[in-house]
Amino acid sequence: MRRITLPSGESIPVLGQGTWGWGEDPGRRGDEVAALHAGLELGMTLVDTAEMYADGGAEEVVGEALAGRRDEAFVVSKVLPSHASRSGTIAACERSLKRLGTDRIDLYLLHWQGRYPLQDTVAAFQQLVEDGKIRYWGVSNFDHRALADLQDVPGSSGLATDQVLYNLSRRGPEYDLLPWCANHQLPVMAYSPIEQGRILDDTTLNDVAARHSVSAAAAAIAWVLRRDSLCTIPKASSPQHVRDNATALDVELTREDLDALDRAFPPPSGPRPLEML
Known about the structure:
This protein is of the alpha/beta class.
């Protein structure tokens, strides 16, 4: 498994597992747990969740799946902006820890920027690090301007990542956000690399996938992973889905592939507002 390095020096897999939509249907719980186990066996030990997903239900599924295996995973969760005051962030983290059945979250993110001052949220993150309840902290859905503003907040040097929407149909970050992050040695975590399945019927993407004998989803994930200092967290709802995602790691897109995908999904020619799902 290829890995990227966080500012702390610790490395994480470039391909992880997302859990958006997990915990919503009790009938799918067994498949969700089995999917996470399959990913762990394949080295996809980066596991992303959030208190927002199924009102904590996804965290509970992750906790069940990691029972007895917690040390195998690098767990990411997120605090909602409505909870992101100094005391609210700490309380939200403690609730997430309980649902996850663990004593620490490896990476804790502000899900998006809200009404609370960033200095209060960062101060809470620092307190949680000092207390051993989280190991690292970061943000999600921040554009390059918001990241620049964050630099002025005391304690912001602890920032570990920015998790953003990035895929073939959402290429806006290439114009300004990804270059900013590269210049500041900030790793990026891309969510929804297959656009919740909406791009999988594209003819060009399927042609590229066929040339490499993989699915369209794996080709789309491989396209995201072509970039350095970037990891991604596709959701998978079954072990077979996880195994299919993992085939993206063996795909090396050619110049012909990339040019064809650029024609089908043009890169940005100017700044675009950061999109989110």
